[in-house]
């Protein structure tokens, strides 16, 4: 497949925050479940599921080991968030809420990813093991990118795009390094984004119940 296809896929993944942004994505004060915000992750996960077991349908083939940068790039969006905070750029939520949604999102992402890896047992392109689907690297990277997007989309869309560029680069390298099929990284991206959006939907309920419990007098 031509480099144009590779570049097009990379740019499409990197531009996801422009399509995914909805008014219901910020942490709400009332219980809401913005289903429209799940269109993008559902499309990614669905695309990955459709390609699963059909490598000939994928946009292009792996080319062999290219770089080990993907092992570090997956944490790029998280590093960018820390750098922005150290620079004094305030996120949309307070530090306590930001830590909470980060932890909950990553726990959800890791749990779902591990369940699918153990259940599906898909062989990696390089044959090293049967933990190919979905891509954990892509899931981590896109969880970080979506968290960055939610925290700083009110500042500049370029911050969101930067996070998604790092996540997209991670995914492309996983395929190029023969560690994953495209089905794996698409599903991983969808799981990562969905984990954050679900957390943003349910976190207000969890927080409210915890606050109510703390206010109750001890018996």
TrEMBL record:
Keyword Transmembrane helix applies: yes
The keyword Secreted is annotated on this UniProt entry: no
Membrane topology: Multi-pass membrane protein
Domain Phosphatidic acid phosphatase type 2/haloperoxidase, residue spans: 95-200
GO molecular function, one term: phosphatidate phosphatase activity
SMART domains assigned: acidPPc (SM00014)
Keyword terms of this UniProt record: Membrane, Signal, Transmembrane, Transmembrane helix
Entry's localization field: Membrane
Signal peptide residues on this chain, from the entry's feature table: 1-20
Chief subcellular location: membrane
GO CC annotations on file: membrane
CDD domains in UniProt: PAP2_like_5
GO annotation, biological process: phospholipid dephosphorylation; phospholipid metabolic process
Family statement: Belongs to the PA-phosphatase related phosphoesterase family.
Protein name: PAP2 family protein
The organism of origin for this protein: Larkinella punicea
